[in-house]
Amino acid sequence: MEAADGVGGAAAAAAAAAAAAAAPAAAAATGGEGFWPRSVLDIGCGNGVKTSAIAAEFSLPPDRVLGVELTSSYGGVDVNAAAFTHHLYDGQTLPASVQADSQDLVVLSM
Q1: Rounded to an integer, what distance in angstroms lies between the CA atom of residue 25 and that of residue 40?
Q2: Among the listed residues 51, 38, 53, 60, the one whose alpha carbon sits nearest the alpha carbon of residue 86
Q3: In terms of C-beta density within 10 A (0-12 exposed, 13-18 middle, 19 or more buried), how is residue 95 classed?
């Protein structure tokens, strides 16, 4: 039981550190004040640590934050995956939400 708590605690600490690191970048990317996205598309989201931090920073519900990844080789989605919607891109079709809606903030990680 302690090992599971330790792993969860480490994951929570990593997510908190990612959120802290993302905050200045989010402020810079959004021009500081006045911009607050209602939707986010994270292309190349990897395991979702950064995506979770962005969702937390802007207090967005999971259905307004989409993380898209080309490969599942990251060993699965981050423990905070409940913070966003994850899509494994097949190289052909993006989720309907991306096709139908505009995105207020797009993050590209390669």
Answers
A1: 14
A2: 51
A3: middle
**Radius of gyration for the chain, computed over Cα atoms and rounded to the nearest angstrom:** 14
The count of other CB atoms within 10 Å of the CB of residue 60 is 20
Q: Cα dihedral angle (102, 37, 23, 85), rounded to 10 degrees?
A: -50
Q: Are the CB atoms for 15 and 53 separated by under 8 Å?
A: yes
Instruction: Between 18 and 110, name the one with better pLDDT.
Output: 110
More confident residue, 24 or 6: 24
Q: Say what the pTM is.
A: 0.63
> Phi, psi at residue 33, to the nearest 5°?
-105, 155
Among candidate residues 76, 64, 73, the one with its CA nearest the CA of residue 102:
64
DSSP state of 70: S
Task: Please state, in angstroms and rounded to a whole number, the distance separating the CA atoms of residues 72 and 2.
Answer: 29
Question: Is the torsion defined by CA of 67, 68, 72, 73 positive or negative?
Answer: negative
DSSP state of 83: G
